[in-house]
Amino acid sequence: MSVEKIIEEEKQGQSLITEQVNNNHKKLFIESYGCQMNMNDSEIVASILAKEGYNTTQNLEEADLVLVNTCSIRDKAEQTIRKRLQKYNRVKLKKNRKMKIGVLGCMAERLKTKFLEEEKMLDLVVGPDAYRDLPNLVKEIESGRDAVNVLLSKEETYADVSPVRLNSNGVSAFVSITRGCDNMCTFCVVPFTRGRERSRDPQSIIKEIRDLKDQNFKEVTLLGQNVDSYVWYGGGLKKDFDKASEIAKATAVDFASLLDMCATAFPKIRFRSFTSNPQDMSLDVLHVTAKHDNICKYIHLPIQSGSTKVLNRMNRQHTREEYIELIDNIRKIIPECAISQDIITGFCGETEEDHKETLSLMEYVKYDYGYMFAYSERPGTLAAKKFEDDIPLEVKKRRLAEVIALQREHSHVRTKAFVGKTMEVLIEGTSKKSDQHWKGRNTQNTVAIFPKTGNETLGDFVMVKINDCTSATLLGTVVNRE
Ligand code: 5AD
Ligand code: SF4
Fold first, then answer.
1. Which CATH number fits the domain 297-416, given the four candidates 2.40.30.170, 3.30.750.200, 3.10.20.30, 3.20.20.80?
2. How many CB atoms neighbour CB 448 within 10 A?
């Protein structure tokens, strides 16, 4: 099929969806917790249900169907969702007895039918690979029966579903490129809730981005649990790549070539990706990032711990030294690159010495920012089976506080280094604090706030001179492009 034909069919599909949305009368309230994958999955779900007569609403009380896309990554995330379910139950009992309530995502996959036993008012439980079955499942619950589908898939990537952009600023959007994770980090529940890793057809990725470009979007974040291990060899699981034919291997598309393809095909779109994994990140990816102005100079590179001993126990597949070598390569190949981290404190067996190694690694990298967590044992994970969760909560929390404090210092140093410079910023909205100011981000992902002049608008790339900063935000003024 020619590219023109694909685009034409896609446009027809899009106008069909618009027509459906206009004729719909049932109301869907959908909420997402956890990672950006979940946010994007909810957009896929909204698209699937638009064809079943459901339009989204922000008003919980009027909803016919309430769906919560859940996260299992830490115990606290699950507790938050339990509280939300109680809130939905209260609204159902007091305001809208006909309301149906369903759970999607990782908690649905983890708890399966047990969820229905634990939450008596729940009608529907659907895992991340079963959203295509929602039309059938919704019919089941509309006729008064509970419905469950938590089957995981080897192929599902929702490649042909055009997501309905939810809570969108019309400027930045997410596009999923892989699903699942094969890494089996011992602390992590994701491989169990999102299944084996598979990549999406690059043609369908390009199609989705073209559609976003036609709708005037300016920034696309390519999403995956581990974007660097993207590989398209005609379909199938990542783990079966080695068994593919020689031709399939020779013509396979890896993450570096996908990025290159996207950045070349859409020079006006700015690209980000999320999340990178140290052991899979190739030098090719760094060179492609350096080559294209429209690939953001920002890499989120989780480390989890600065101690090789702990990394080994976490099954992270790289040492402290290998991580440092990668950081050095990033600094060499993309000197202006911002780097952020994920760190876990108090993993099983972590000594004070190990913790100090984390702090010293942070000193070495001086991350621009980070996402830091105390270890939370997750049922069913390898760590839960193999190791004792032996670090007392106060110690986990004290170490976490130390890591956060150090990160705050480094973030401030990094932010201050932008003061006095002029940089391109994409306008993503009006500042929350003042409607006289815009907010946007530079290529490094740092937020900038600056006064509106009346000459620029949402979605513009503008040059901003940075005059000052707070610990994590740049303050500037728009200047003319030279
Ligand atoms: N406890 C604490 N943090 C966790 N993460 C993943 N699993 C756990 C857990 N059991 C963190 C990791 C990961 C991020 C998405 O969440 O740092 O990179
Ligand atoms: Fe979890 Fe590790 Fe996969 Fe990230 S790479 S989703 S931490 S198993």
1. 3.30.750.200
2. 25
Please name which of 4, 301, 244, 40 lies closest in space to residue 161, comparing C-alpha atoms.
40
Going by pLDDT thresholds of 50, 70 and 90, the confidence category of residue 395 is very high
Ligand 1: which residue has its CA nearest to atom 7? Answer: 188
For ligand 2, is residue 180 a contact (CB within 6 Å)? no
CA distance 361 to 359: 5
Closest-CA residue to 255 (of 297, 285, 277, 225): 285
Tell how far the Cα of 177 is from the centroid of ligand 1, in angstroms.
21
All CATH 3.30.750.200 domain ranges in the chain, comma separated: 297-416
- Report which protein residue has its CA nearest ligand 2's atom 4: 225
Which residues surround ligand 1 with Cβ inside 6 Å?
73-74, 187-188, 302, 304, 342, 344, 373, 375-376, 378
Is domain 168-295 classified as CATH 3.30.750.210?
yes
Q: How close is the Cα of 184 to the center of ligand 2, in Å?
A: 6
Q: What integer pLDDT is reported at residue 1 of this predicted model? A: 43
Q: Which CATH superfamily is domain 422-479 in?
A: Nucleic acid-binding proteins (2.40.50.140)
Residue nearest to atom 5 of ligand 2 (CA): 183
Residues 117-126: pLDDT tens digits? 999 999 999 9
Shortest-distance ligand to the CA of residue 304: 1
> Which residue puts its alpha carbon closest to atom 18 of ligand 1?
342
Per the CB < 8 A criterion, the answer to whether 105 and 129 are in contact is no
CATH 2.115.10.20 fits 3-149, yes or no: no
Query: Using one digit for the tens of pLDDT, what is the confidence trace for 125-177?
Result: 999 999 999 999 999 999 999 999 999 999 999 999 999 999 999 999 999 99
